[in-house]
# Entry
Amino acid sequence: MPTVRIGTRGSKLALAQTNNVLGLLNKNGVAAESEIITTVGDAVLDRGLHQIGGQGVFVRELDNAILRGEIDAAVHSMKDIPAERPDGLVTAAILPRDPPWDFFVFNRPVDEIYSVGTSSTRRRAQLLRYYQCMPQVRVEPLRGNVDTRLSKLNDGLYDAIVLAEAGLVRLGYHVNGVRLPLDMFVPSPNQGTVAVVCRDTPELLEAFAPLNDFRTALDTGIERAVMEQVGGGCFTPQGIFCQNGHLIAEVLSLDGTRGERITGTVGSIEEAREIGVQFKEIAADLIEEARAFLGLKV
Ligand SMILES: NCc1[nH]cc(CCC(=O)O)c1CC(=O)O
# Structure
């Protein structure tokens, strides 16, 4: 097979993820190289993600480059991959999950934390709901890649920030902070997981197949199936997390004062869909409220 061309965003995190995949392919004797593609999500940092097309902005341009044949495959943080996928592309491998936790990074004593930076509506609502032990805390918008966010913290623009531990681990960063408990800070669907997408050809599928981790693929597939039924989207404060079949799904109001959750053991994608349908009923008002407030169409 000719050298596999793998597209990647140019952020350090994207490059670390892609280099890891290149290394794994190399170990299996598959020749592969990477090519950097800049996406709208990387270029526009002064607006919330929900204003520039949602999390999907990071993925769409790489999808198009694959479909145009400029590259064969792309490596993504799986949580950035939107529910709607174009025809002709497949998920060729889901890597073993890295730490799924949100990480609370801070530079000062806990009782001196007044501002916490995050642009995620989920993390904001969870902080407001579960950090009532810190009533002085204001949640302030903060976008950008992991380095941008850490340097704004270090510059004193925030007293603390929240980011995915997986990003820190993949970059080899050791920062002062704590893991936020999974049952309160229920992660985004697929957080902590890297996926490879490619054009649907037998050669490419065969090259990537050994990289797939079946347990992670089922857990993340369950999260995605619940997410697709619930609807929501990145404007909704929602967490969906499944570990070895144990599922927690939660939707909060934007201000964290109200919430609904469902927990259970799930053995199949079909079962996940059924739970998603049930939970959609329960969470419908909260989702509608978030949608109306942020002024978005479905
Ligand atoms: N929202 C951007 C994004 N997409 C994936 C990760 C982290 C890595 C992962 O979850 O796989 C991040 C950064 C963050 O949430 O702090």
The chain is about 35% helix and 20% strand. The longest helix spans residues 269-294.
